[in-house]
Each structure stands twice: as C-alpha cells, then as structure tokens.
C-alpha cells in the first residue's frame, strides 16, 4: 500500500482535521436525513394503500419492508458517525456481493498492524475511499435498497438549478453550426473556441464542496470574451497554448480523447459540450470515451446511471423548473445538440467506458476496467494496480482529467479548479503574493490550473 511521506492527520493540518471532524460527519448526517425523509414518505404511502386496498396490499407490504430496511441503514450510519467522532477503529467491509471487499479489507489489516486503523490515524485517501465503499455496503446488504444512490437527489437538484446556463450554452453551440466547415480549416478560430471550452469546464466546475455565494456562481457562470479575459488572472498555471499546439499535430483517422469524469450534473454537461466540440467542430478527434465511477462516490461523482439519466433529462421538456429560463429557440437548440450526442452514443463516437467490450481486438469487461476508480489506490499506482486501464489511457491521444498525478503516462490535460490545499505547478512567487494578501486561493474555487504534459515528458515510473 502507498505510504505517505507525512502523517495523514496533524493538528496543524487544518484541512485534514476538518475533514474527519466536520466534513465526513456532515455527509453521514445528510445521508441519514435523506433516507429518513424517504422512509417518512413511504410510511404515508403505505398507510394510504392500506386504507384503500386493505392490509394485504402487496404495495403496502413492500413499502413497509423497505422502511424496516431503511431503519437498519440509519442505525449503521449513526453508529459510524459515533465511532468516527471518537477515533475508533475502521471495521471490515462486509461481504456484500460487490467489488473490492477483499482489497479494502486487506489494506485495513495492514493498517491495523501499523496501528493506523482509526479515523484519526488512517491515511486520508484510504479513509475517504473506504467511507464510500462502506456506504455502498449499507445499501447492498438489503433487498429493497440495493444499488440505491443516496446522493442522487442532491446531484439532480443542483443540475435542475443550472437550466439558464445550459440553454445559453446550447444556443452558443448552435451558432457554430453555420461556421462548422470553415472552423475545421481555421486553427486560429478553433483556438479561440478551444479556450472557451477550457474555461467553461473550469468555471462551471462548481461541485458540492465549493462554498460560493449565489452571486459568485452567477458571476462565474457567464460565457464570452470579456468574461474570459477577466478570469485570466485567476488561472495560476496556463498551458492552453501548449495543449492546443499538441492537438494540432494530431492527424489521420481514429484519434481518441478520454474524459475521466468528475462531478455529475452541470459539470458533466460541460464535459459533454467540450467532447462535442472536439469531434463535431475540429478535425482532430473522431471518438471520445467517458470514464465514470461504478457506484456513488465522493458525493457528486458521475456513475453510469448519472450519465444515462443526464441525457434523458436534457431531452425532457419538463426537467428544468418552469420559469423564464429559456426561449423556445434555446430549448430547440438544446434538443438539437443532445440528440446529436445520443446519435454519437448510438454509433460509437461517444462511448461510456463501462460499455467497452474490446481493446485492440481482445475482449474486455468495461466494468472490470472501471474498478480502479473506486479502489483505495492513489492514481500513480494505476500502472501497477490496473495495467489494462493504464494501457488503454496510454493509447489515448488526449486524456482530460480534473486532477491527476500521472504526467508522462499519456498526453494529459488536467483542468483543476482549486478546492483543496494541494496545488501543483503554481510559481512560488505567485503563491507567496496570494498568501500575503490573505487569499484562500487553494480552496475557494475562484482560482484554477490548466496543466498539460505530453506523453513521456515526465517518467511515469517516478
């Protein structure tokens, strides 16, 4: 197992301490509250069915069974929160018929041997991954809640609130249609649009962990040259020119881009728009593969179900709340764009990695390929722990990550809005100036990094 060079928690490490005493307990509490609200609704529905159909109603019985299982889920989550607050030992993941039980428990046994198996002593990466795998087991050990996503409602609610920006972007993309043929032969015009795509992905990367006021979000959610120029000072590392120079060297058919997906909802929408731009409006790519997480992960990450529901929701005329958020023209533009995405999914231009069946003529299990993303390993262990996945990405012409310490393994474009203490590639003098001004630039979500490393530029073995 990866051994961190520094203690996983330290009284001086405020971010790590806040994670275990504040952030994780809040996530557990929200899970409990969500399940409790659903149980309340189920109880009322069961009573209504009993009154209308009698006590032998199959629907009422099923709801009652689900409520009883929900009570057990809440009891487990409450116990977990109690144990976490008291720095008690992490317990083994139960055999729930799902992936990586043996992997997590083997690592937990090693941590126990080194006395690093309590909530305040376990390495942060392992502990957070373990937490979501444990959540998964709570629902898997039931019959009525198995495969339930306790974070879906939260993801969907945020997505619904993004309607105005989604319609605006759909119209912007529609306006490119008449210029499509000209654009493909004009790299300079494509570069301007490419910058728009990059910054769209950065400034719409407003996950559930970014603490911005509504005014901040509204200010960031603007599209145009003035906004782009205004944001330039907030991009602390900017490799946009370098990655574009690389992309222009891609010639010939069958060039592939891989997106390692992060947050669901609006951020996934912007990923799809970026992918659409690459295959529809540039001559450089003909295929995009999207890599989701296999089950609910870090609250907001994209699962295969999220991906499929996003397409269906965007095609629905009733998904976004009623109100003056879209003109009939913008609504039509959105339909046109998303129907093109559906066509791409049908003909293999867009592919979800979990649906992959073949690599280089050999059969492959896409589900197996995706397991690494929900394991307890650092990304730099990919080649060792998930060689087939590493090989797939190594063969890609561009891999878009939101954060990734795999420079040199494959052509890597990392788009990162700063929401954690770790920031790589920022010149020391810039970091010092921001610190002197008292800016919370590492965690506020207002600053970003655009990092590009071509294949082999840094040893992937280091």
From TrEMBL:
It catalyses: beta-D-fructose 6-phosphate = dihydroxyacetone + D-glyceraldehyde 3-phosphate; beta-D-fructose 1-phosphate + H2O = D-fructose + phosphate. It is an enzyme of class 3 (hydrolase). The keyword Metal-binding applies. Its EC number is 3.1.3.-. It comes from Hydnomerulius pinastri MD-312. It holds the Pfam family ARMT1-like_dom. This is Sugar phosphate phosphatase. Coiled coil: none annotated. Belongs to the damage-control phosphatase family. Sugar phosphate phosphatase III subfamily. One of its GO terms (cellular component) is nucleus. Keywords: Hydrolase, Manganese, Metal-binding. The keyword Amino-acid biosynthesis does not apply. GO terms for biological process: DNA damage response.
């Amino acid at each position: 197992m990866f051994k961190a060079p520094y203690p996983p928690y330290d009284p001086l490490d405020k971010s790590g301490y806040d994670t275990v005493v504040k952030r994780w307990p809040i996530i557990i509490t929200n899970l409990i509250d969500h399940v409790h609200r659903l149980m309340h609704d189920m109880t009322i529905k069961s009573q209504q069915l009993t009154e209308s159909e009698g006590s032998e109603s199959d629907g009422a019985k099923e709801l009652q069974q689900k409520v009883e299982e929900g009570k057990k889920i809440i009891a487990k989550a409450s116990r977990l929160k109690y144990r976490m607050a008291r720095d008690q030992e992490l317990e083994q993941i139960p055999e729930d018929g799902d992936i990586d039980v043996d992997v997590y428990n083997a690592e937990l046994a090693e941590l126990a041997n080194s006395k690093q198996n309590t909530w305040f002593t376990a390495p942060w990466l392992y502990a957070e991954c373990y937490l979501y795998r444990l959540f998964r087991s709570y629902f898997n050990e039931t019959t009525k809640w198995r495969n339930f996503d306790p974070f879906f409602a939260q993801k969907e609610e945020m997505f619904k609130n993004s309607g105005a920006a989604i319609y605006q972007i759909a119209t912007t993309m529609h306006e490119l249609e008449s210029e499509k043929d000209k654009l493909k032969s004009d790299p300079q015009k494509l570069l301007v649009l490419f910058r728009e795509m990059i910054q769209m992905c950065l400034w719409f990367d407003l996950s559930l962990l970014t603490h911005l006021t509504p005014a901040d979000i509204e200010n960031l959610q603007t599209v145009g040259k003035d906004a782009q120029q205004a944001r330039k000072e907030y991009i602390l590392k900017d490799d946009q020119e370098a990655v574009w120079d690389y992309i222009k060297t891609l010639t010939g058919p069958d060039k592939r881009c891989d997106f390692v997906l992060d947050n669901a909802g609006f951020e996934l929408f912007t990923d799809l728009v970026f992918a659409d731009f690459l295959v529809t409006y540039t001559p450089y790519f003909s295929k995009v593969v999207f890599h989701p997480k296999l089950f609910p992960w870090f609250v907001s990450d994209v699962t295969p179900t999220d991906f499929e529901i996003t397409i269906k929701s965007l095609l629905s005329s009733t998904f976004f709340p009623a109100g003056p958020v879209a003109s009939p023209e913008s609504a039509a533009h959105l339909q046109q764009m998303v129907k093109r995405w559906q066509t791409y999914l049908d003909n293999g231009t867009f592919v979800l990695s979990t649906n992959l069946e073949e690599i280089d003529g050999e059969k492959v299990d896409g589900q197996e390929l995706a397991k690494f993303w929900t394991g307890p390993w650092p990304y730099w262990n990919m080649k060792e722990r998930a060689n087939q996945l590493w090989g797939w990405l190594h063969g890609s012409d561009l891999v878009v990550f939101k954060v990734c310490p795999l420079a040199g393994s494959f052509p890597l474009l990392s788009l990162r809005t700063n929401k954690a203490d770790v920031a790589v590639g920022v010149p020391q003098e810039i970091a010092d100036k921001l610190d002197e001004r008292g800016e919370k630039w590492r965690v506020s979500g207002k600053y970003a990094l655009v990092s590009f490393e071509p294949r082999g530029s840094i040893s992937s073995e280091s």
